[in-house]
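Entry 14. Ran structure prediction on the chain below.
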Amino acid sequence: MNSAGPEMVRPAEAAFGVPRVLPVVQEILPWELDLIERVCGDTRFHDVTVFTMVEDAMALIHKPSDPAGALWAVTGGIEPDESMADAVIREAWEETGLRTRPVRYVLRMEVLFTCGARQRPWTSHVFLAVPAAEPGSPESLLPHLTPVDTHEVEYAEWVTVTRFRADVAPTLMASGWGRFSYRLAISERLFQELGF
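Output, structure tokens:
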């Protein structure tokens, strides 16, 4: 079972800090649990979630199957023999086209997804990252976002925390999808941890 155990967690904590650990129970729809089981099988029970930020702007993604206006943080699995930091860098590159640098391990969300009598344990390792500085470019500029994995990600865009709360959060909630409720909870908790 690939659950990103202590051999992965300890080096990440040593390099990027010990995260706040939060237990969560999240009801999801049958098709959502079916999707997790189909994609992850019996081998993956985790993700890295990456909030790449410049000041109060976040690089968020929209997947082809998402409702219009739904945007959320980069997320994906840790490959065999890959560190969490490497997974953060790879996932951000694949989904936004950004070269990034993880700077803080903010949250470890220990969730139990439920769907009636069905259950799926899951852990989200939530990281704050920043764009890797290009030589000679001001760090305050928002780099252009161009997803590399265009099969998985339709587009990526910079969204401020204010716009996220005003426009994106209501869209995620209106979907009725449990995974979006969970991703929204992660976002709001991260904002609290960062003082937004």
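The mean pLDDT is 94. Will compare against last week's run tomorrow.
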